[in-house]
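WARN retry 2 of 3 for item q-0093 after timeout on previous attempt; input resubmitted unchanged.
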Amino acid sequence: MPKPMICLFDALRKYLEFFRSCFSHRQWKYFVTVLLGLIEHEGRHTLKGLLASVWEKVSLSGLSRFLGLWPWAPEELARTWQADFRQELAGAVQTEHRRQRAARPKRRGRPQATLVTGYLVLDDSVQGKPKGRKMAGRGQHYSTTEKKVVPGHCLFTSLYLLLGRRCPLLPQLYRQKAVCAREGVPFQSKVDLAVAEIEHFQPPPDTHTHVLVDSWYHCRRVRRAAARRGWDLSGGLKSNRWMRISTPEGGREWVQLSAYAAGLGDADWVEATWPAREGGTRSTSTPCGPGCASSAPPWC
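OK item q-0093 returned
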């Protein structure tokens, strides 16, 4: 049955209070209605479905105006929840630094610096919209779920992980060039969105950031954007990408990744332990073979 707002449990009520300054008094009621409806409704998340799950005096037209016309800024919401995340994790970061300092062995010389790493994950997903012909930003995108090109929206998403906690960042709509020309908005490629996210994201203090991307985003611009901030970056590489290696004679040459991988033998593969929330996970990886110019695997 529909649930009134007064039934909000304490954790959700405390969470929603952080965003009260982002809305007017009238907007605040609709904001809570949407969040409570998303939690309670088990069917399709339509506006009628959300209203059917919340027992409040709000109208369907008012909810539509709240989502599409009323002047509130999603960017302000994102800044608010990220600031709260940084403040909440500040104590845990310092606790982890103290734990690492207490666990490191005592020896002469300058002690090794402690390191708390957060992971910034960049990716995109496609939401098919076969019937929404008048929806803004609707284009033709390849869906890995459907294994074909489908009409719909492509959403660029980012996720930050630190000490087992997750903070989703503000999603952004990716529009193709033809869609931008039709709607009169400036075009931004997926790489542009990734570079902008790396340049503007503010991690909690006293942490190191490691960016994780797939092969679509792994390019020179993204790597240089991470390097300018002193961050690490790991990502996949397509087999047709070219990589520079050092030859035994001291020179350098460019080879395709597929050709480099074909030259690896059994001795080049080692078992590595990757950190995970449930404990160390064993997996097979390969270091640089003879002739690689870097001390890290070429795809990292």
